[in-house]
Amino acid sequence: MALFFILLSKIIPLYLNIAIGYLLTKYLKVRRDIVAFLLVYILGPAVIFFATLSIKIDLQIAFLPIIVFLFGSFIAFFVLIKHNKKWKDSSINTLAFTCGTGNTGYFGIPLAMILLEPHVVNIFIFVTLASLLYENTTGFFITAKAAFSAKQSILKILRLPLVYAFILGLILNINGFELPQKVIPYFENLKWIYGILGMMMLGMGLKGFNLEEDFDKKYIKIAYFYKFFVWPVFMLLIIFLDKNVFMYLNNDIYDVLFMISIVPLAGNTVTLAILLKSKPEKASFTVLLSNLVSVVYIPLTLSIYQGL
């Protein structure tokens, strides 16, 4: 019960940002496509570049983003193929995208800071790079297919600066490059801006929401099944196999794997849906509702995990 109220007190400011985003778009006519552009093309690359430089990478740490990226990509293509005939519009594309990732950045990092030790939080932040890479490669491709051909989608991916920011950061990290101390606070502030605008984007995506058209029970049911059941079960299986067979990872990494699996749906579902005009209202409502569900879901699953 104590954990529930701690989470609730920390999450409330996130929902205030969502409300502010909605009000800015509805009443002050702030263009949500401009904010989405800033998140994907400017702030996202800067944040991932800084994070890649800020952690000591070893084989255990490297395993985490690889498994998260590969599993997310598998889930996305599986959902796209399995449920392709259930919608005649671009809903299936945003659904496949959101099933393959989670809100590891805007929601997950604050959650990790509440529940994990500081050195484990740094590991968690590094793993969020896998979600960002998924969202800007596999996820972008799947979402873009709603409006573009496969060739056009791939060309759009190659234009995304986030991929190159990660590669550059990784190369500099391996070669021992360190950022000057004077610029580190600047990048730290960018992380906060990225998180605030990301949550505001959920509210911006609700502009034009129509309950009859955008409250899709089938869409929500499938998204929540994969995010709230398939993801944690898969990570628990990885943890079980490693503890009893491979014995390669450690308890800190187990905690990060499980934490990654229980965050709500990704806010960038809305960002990409807006950029690509792929049912942003439906995506925004589904993502927002998943954040509300998580107020109860996360303490419950963490209690079960600790009991195991």
Description:
The chain is mainly alpha-helical and 308 residues long. It has a single domain, classed as Na+/H+ antiporter like fold (Up-down Bundle). The chain has 15 helices and no strands. It has helices at residues 2-27, 32-53, 59-82, 91-99, 104-115, 118-136, 138-144, 150-158, 161-174, 184-204, 211-214, 217-246, 251-262, 268-276, 280-307.
Rg: 18 Å
What is the CATH class name? Mainly Alpha
How many domain units?
1
Distance between the amino and carboxyl termini: 19 Å
Low-confidence stretches: none
- Which H/E pattern describes the elements? HHHHHHHHHHHHHHH
Name the CATH architecture: Up-down Bundle
Q: Which structural class best describes the helix and strand composition?
A: mainly alpha
Tally of DSSP β-strands: 0
Helical content class: over 70%
Q: Characterize the largest beta sheet: strand count, sense, and whether it forms a barrel.
A: none
CATH topology (level 3) name: Na+/H+ antiporter like fold
Indicate the proportion of strand residues: under 5%
Shape: globular
Helix tally? 15
Mean pLDDT over all positions: 82
Keywords: Cell membrane, Membrane, Transmembrane, Transmembrane helix, Transport
GO biological process, one term: transmembrane transport
Pfam families: Mem_trans
Membrane topology: Multi-pass membrane protein
Which labels suit this protein?
308 residues; Na+/H+ antiporter like fold; 80% helix
In brief, what are we looking at here?
This protein has 308 residues and is mainly alpha-helical. It is built from 15 helices and no strands.
